[in-house]
Design goal:
By secondary structure, the chain is of the alpha+beta class. Strands 1, 2, 3, 4 and 5 form a 5-stranded mixed sheet that branches. The mean pLDDT is about 85.
């Protein structure tokens, strides 16, 4: 993965592609006059990407996390953020004279520190007051202006920034082989900071007797590769970062032999605003909730490249890999879209309601509606990983989560909307991809509803499943009749909150039939449905070896898809 990011970074530099970091917010600038040794005011202005590109802000995302000194900081608490800027200027003052030979540079730093110290209370009060005028949701940054200029407009402060960066790297540097480019006799360092998967500040991450000077042995990277990685990461963040149902991932293309021109084409399209707009217009078929998704476009390519999906979570100054899906071929992406198209065709989904990963996410988001954050990300990402890699899923595991949502809807609303249908859509999607296999049991000869079962592949591969499905449909016919007659569905109490076992299902058939007779509603269509139900249940025999969740899943499917049964037993002509 890192070598792929390095290649992207190298190509970005070669082609001079724009690497734009999407940063928005308000900047609060402390205006100091060094000639008069005075403080004038706090200015508020919008974050300017052009100034950021010129490095006037001396801002690097993530560099000022925690209590680390910085000349440009996200504003949290005025006092703490103020101390970060003061601390950074003090570090500049401590640099040896070989770096800052110019007396004017020393004078500039000392004057800035003098005013910040004398006027500290007044400045902090003004910062707090100005911050109140900015909406809480909007990002806020704090920095200093000297004589109307940003710190990055002075060479002395640029030199300081470079010096601090080099010092950090050299604390863990040696001569060796780069782990990215494999070139020997390079000056390598274990302090890259491009991805913060680990830190050398904590003993558990350092090899060689837990001594920081030996940390380079863990992850030796040469200075050239570090530059390429930085540019590659910035390009990914600006162009190939996508939303994924409360999570984010970086899409990292990796070239195989002879595919250099293809990577150039992809980077060219993503770097050109006009082409990107045209690409968005062209792509209508999506499988995630991100309007900028380009997976369908990449699925049309030949297998001369692979795709890596990196799901990252920021945790203060560190990053944690939630999931890394490596080496996914375009042909696999095509297979996923074919499965999506198959599901949409079966369930007559319109273009605005097509199957997506969001259909899966509905069942793997929160274990409790009262929880503010998703606590089922682990399970959801395991399923996503299986979809892209083609690894097997346990159907009983899926059913457990399906039925939690379905039962909750059944009890709270007393009727189904789309949840059970979505669960069946997921099942057909996984079965088409070969992620779940259903054991095919000896079947009876084709019956009245064979066309209905055939739509859903091997999901209804046994007489027991078909019988339970039809029992659900017949029960829903009764519930519909009760609603028409009484504006209520008292028979729902017999369904035990959808926790019925094999014995309960078999006992349900005569009860439903008897109730329909009482309502004088056991007409020809319902008799045909009851007859087919009985045939399948008798053919299934005893001891179905179906868990309770599975039995009630197929029963609920029958309830929700009753119209497909009604269309056959009550033909319009």
């Amino acid at each position: 993965m890192l070598s792929a990011i390095r290649d992207i970074g190298e190509l970005v530099i070669q082609k001079a592609c724009e690497v734009e970091e999407q940063i928005r917010g308000k900047i609060l600038s402390i205006n100091l006059d060094t000639d008069k040794s005075s403080y004038s005011a706090i200015d508020i202005e919008d974050f300017d990407s052009e100034r950021h590109k010129k490095n006037w802000y001396l801002f690097k995302q993530g560099a000022s996390k925690g209590n680390v000194p910085s000349p440009f900081c996200p504003l949290t608490e005025p006092v703490k953020t103020y101390k970060k800027i003061e601390g950074w200027l003090n570090q500049c003052n401590d640099i040896n004279e070989n770096t800052l030979k110019d007396d004017s540079s020393r004078y500039l730093i000392n004057k800035a520190l003098e005013v910040l110290t004398v006027k500290r209370e007044a400045i902090i009060t003004d910062i707090a007051q100005k911050a109140k005028d900015i909406p809480k949701k909007e990002s806020k940054f704090l920095t200093v202006k000297l004589d109307g200029k940003y710190l990055g407009e002075y060479e002395v402060f640029k030199k300081c920034l470079v010096t601090f960066d080099e010092k950090k790297r050299k604390r863990s540097a040696n001569s060796g082989v780069c782990s990215i480019c494999s070139m020997p006799d390079k000056e390598v360092s274990g302090k890259t900071d491009v991805f913060r998967f680990y830190t050398i500040d904590k003993p558990g991450f350092i090899t060689g007797g837990f001594q920081e000077p030996h940390a380079w042995k863990n992850f030796p990277v040469c200075m050239e590769c570090r530059t390429f990685l930085e540019n590659g990461r910035k390009f990914l963040e600006g162009n190939l970062k996508f939303k994924f149902y409360g999570l984010n991932y970086l899409l990292i293309p990796r070239l195989l032999t002879g595919g250099q021109s293809l990577l150039e084409e992809v980077l060219d399209i993503l770097s050109d605003t006009t082409k990107t707009v045209a690409l968005k217009e062209r792509i209508k078929n999506r499988i995630t909730n991100d309007d900028d998704e380009i997976l369908e476009y990449l699925s049309e390519e030949k297998d001369v490249l692979t795709l890596n999906f990196l799901f990252l979570q920021r945790q203060q100054s560190a990053e944690r890999i939630l999931l890394l899906i490596e080496d996914v071929f375009p042909s696999r992406i095509r297979k996923i879209f074919e499965s999506k198209d198959n599901v949409d065709h079966i369930f007559n989904n319109g273009s605005d309601k097509g199957f997506t990963f969001g259909t899966i996410r509905e069942f793997f988001s929160r274990s409790d509606d009262n929880k503010k954050q998703s606590d089922l990300n682990k399970y959801f990402l395991e399923i996503v990983d299986s979809v892209f890699k083609g690894s097997r899923l346990d159907f009983s595991f899926l059913l457990r989560f399906y039925m939690v949502v379905v039962r909750k809807e059944f009890i709270n609303e007393g009727y189904f909307s789309f949840r059970i249908k979505d669960a069946l859509m997921n099942t057909v999607f996984f079965e088409y991809l070969g992620l779940i296999n259903f054991e095919e049991v000896r079947n009876m000869e084709e019956g009245l509803f064979s066309s209905v079962f055939a739509q859903y592949g091997k999901s209804f591969g046994s007489s027991a499943k078909k019988g339970v499905f039809l029992m659900g449909a017949l029960t829903q016919m009764l519930l519909n009749k009760q609603w028409i007659e009484r504006n209520a569905r008292p028979f729902m109490k017999k369904l035990k909150g959808l926790k019925m076992d094999e014995k309960d299902i078999k006992a349900l058939l005569p009860e439903v039939q008897n109730k329909l007779e009482e309502y004088d509603a056991f007409d020809k269509g319902k008799r045909l449905t009851a007859s087919e139900t009985a045939k399948y249940l008798l053919d299934a025999g005893d001891g179905w070896k179906m868990p309770v969740d599975e039995i009630n899943f197929y029963f609920a499917c029958g309830m929700n898809l009753v119209d497909s049964i009604a269309d056959i037993v009550y033909p319009k002509n």
